[in-house]
Amino acid sequence: MTVPLLDVQDAVVDYHVPGRATVHAVAGVSISVGAGEIVGLVGESGCGKSTLGRAIVGLQKLSSGTVSLDGHPVAPVGRGARPVRDRGLQMVFQDPYSSLNPRRRIGKQIADGLSASTDPRPVGEQVAELLESVGLSANVASRFPHEFSGGQRQRIAIARALAPNPSVIVADEPVSALDASTRAQVTNLLTSLAAERGMGLLFISHDLSGVRHMADRVAVMYLGRIVENSPTEPLWGDPLHPYSEALIKAIPKLGMDAAAPVAPSGEVPDPANPPTGCRFHPRCPYAMDRCITDDPALVHIESTAEGSRDAACWLQPEDGPARRLVEFSVVGRP
Amino acid sequence: MSLLEIDDLRISLPTDGAPRVLVDGVSLRVNEGEFVGLAGESGSGKTVTALAALGFLPSGSTATGVVRLDGADVLSMSPRQLRGVRGQTVAMVFQDPMTSLHPMLSIETQLTEQLRAHQSISKRAAKDRAVQLLELVRIPNARHALTAYPHHFSGGMRQRIAIASALACDPRLLIADEITTALDVTVQAGILELLHQIRRDTGMAVVFITHDLGVMNVTADSLYVMYSGRVVEHGVTREVLAAPRHPYTRALIDALPDAHNLGEPLVAIPGDAATAENRPSGCAFHPRCAFAVDACRIEVPALRTVAAERELACHVDPFDPADRVTLLVETGA
Description:
Radius of gyration of chain B: 22 Å
Largest sheet of chain B: 8 strands, mixed
Strand content of chain B: 15-25%
Strand order of the largest sheet of chain A: 6-7-8-3-9-10-12-11
CATH superfamily of the largest domain in chain A: P-loop containing nucleotide triphosphate hydrolases
Number of helices of chain A: 11
Number of strands of chain B: 12
CATH superfamily of chain B: P-loop containing nucleotide triphosphate hydrolases
Number of strands of chain A: 12
Radius of gyration of chain A: 21 Å
Order of helices and strands of chain B: EEEHEEHEHHHHHEHEHEEHHHEEH
Helix content of chain B: 25-40%
Shape of chain B: globular
Structural class of chain A: alpha/beta
CATH architecture of chain B: 3-Layer(aba) Sandwich
Distance between the termini of chain B: 47 Å
Number of helices of chain B: 13
Shape of chain A: globular
Oligomer: heterodimer
């Protein structure tokens, strides 16, 4: 097996609020992204997916655990210049209205990232090429962000992220703020960039249909933990973790005979005071006694043609064979 | 007679030059107990149209046409008459429950204030009614929740409280403007279940505004698709979304990631959405439409009935099922 480009091991991010219990926003997460691979990271708001994304690029300090890019540890972003190696890891943010500097011409903002480039060609030429690679015309470099629509701004933000020729991009809800028609353009752009440049993409989103469309593999996050990590289509057809199943059943679908979306019972618990055992057990329709006391680890369950399927659930025996949740839904608890 | 009847509504804002037409000749019907959907991108005029049902018009705008709520003409009502209608016959829930609830007032104050304003009801009775409302929207421990403030609740709970507040005076029509857009998909499913339950219990009608066609498909009985201030297609929701006739409706569906287009690039709609300031001549969608002919650039297509329970505003009608049969026969397929 090849070494993944981006490798996160046992990442923990704590938030300390004076006078309150420490919140483990990310509570021991391992995840990897290979070359040309698109990994979706999904979960409800507050599950820690954005915190994890920020921790991976170094915007948020890890309390413990490691992030490595191409085998080398990634340093947190500080006041000094980043090691050139770490510039291979870039981020695209949700809101292109606040992530671009309104007072600087977009060409200059894109050129910032070129200082790490070893390309001998003039900066203007490289900026033009970057603009064209995101479907904008090269002669807009001297304009300001307010002269562009939301979708165009997000493409400028992507061009800026591409400038240091990154091997991995972390994109946090990059299309959520966009209208339906521009959303499709930016989705297609990210998919083709990953394929053409062999670039890894960690795509953080709460839009499961969008993730299903783009991602090769999906990690499902709940209260700071990854509960399932599976290739996309097996996950959709046959989720291994009850929380993955709950998320999929809640999506409203198109079609004449689309079933009504189903809401999982209860609400997301307070992350400062997570439930004992499996964190999903109070909302889980299949919960057993063991789930209340013992915390399941994310382990390999089965191998498929598309790759390994991992889950953190006592229903699923380590190294398989995987059990089908649909069968339990009929008879109730196993 | 329908509960809400809007006929040829036209709302425009005067400017130095030509007036900006925000809503251009929209007609729609909402029957008792019906879920009617308004879909379209931002700037399509769906919210402005729905707000007209409450007599709310953008400031400085002029409106022509008819808005009839339960037989009464809303556009000619006095402010006093409007106060009698708002909250009582028709109520509204907004997208963001953090801004639609007052952050400094307890839930009890916010729920009982309007009960006391609209009905002659004692403090005690208003409080009992508030508890009832919170139970209706499934807030656990309702009596205790009355003493809490909005920040004590999660986003989904806040939206339930906003719905409870809208339901306070038993409105017959609820305007729900993107009420699930800011919520997680799991919480959204709960809110949609709740709306259907309220309809079963009270027979309330809902005008449901969203740009999310998946949500629309599982929620609304009938659907109006709007583009640039005009209705371009109208019909039974699931039929419209399963077999769209207007090129814009079809383009919206093709741009959507769903089971039907897995593994293919999404088909983005070229160009930018038309705005009221910059509306193209003729059919406003023509610069982005793959099927546009000369007539589309010149003449605004009228909304006409093209099949049972289906209205369409398109000169070309490229997805006419009758034509497709002919085409299949001709090509021998």
